[in-house]
Write a structure and sequence with these properties.
- The longest helix has 20 residues.
- The chain has a domain of 35 residues.
- It is an all-alpha fold and 89 residues long.
- It contains four helices and no strands.
- The protein is elongated, with a radius of gyration of 31 Å.
- The termini are far apart.
Length: 89
């Protein structure tokens, strides 16, 4: 078996070395961090939320139990009616 033009490999490996050096330089830069600020209006909205009532907590627990046991059934007609009303309003 004869392999011709083995010199073509050298330019590629030289490029890869340059790319590796650039990656090292980029990783040495300090990284920017994300920052989030919550407005005063949003803080007021969160503070004014009413705590959940005992009935609501009980209903949520019942639903969780039904889902966990596999007994929860969705009423497709009820969902379709509400969706229809919403889309036509």
């Amino acid at each position: 078996m004869k392999i011709n033009e083995t010199g073509r490999i050298l330019p590629v490996s030289a490029y890869q070395k340059t790319g590796a050096e650039n990656r090292v330089q980029e990783s040495a830069r300090p990284r920017k961090t994300d920052q989030v600020e919550i407005s005063e209006e949003a803080k007021e909205m969160l503070a004014s939320r009413q705590p959940e009532s005992a009935e609501r907590k009980q209903r949520i627990q019942e639903l969780k139990n039904e889902v966990a046991s596999g007994n929860y059934r969705v009423d497709a007609r009820k969902i379709a009616d509400k969706l229809w009303d919403h889309l036509n309003s």
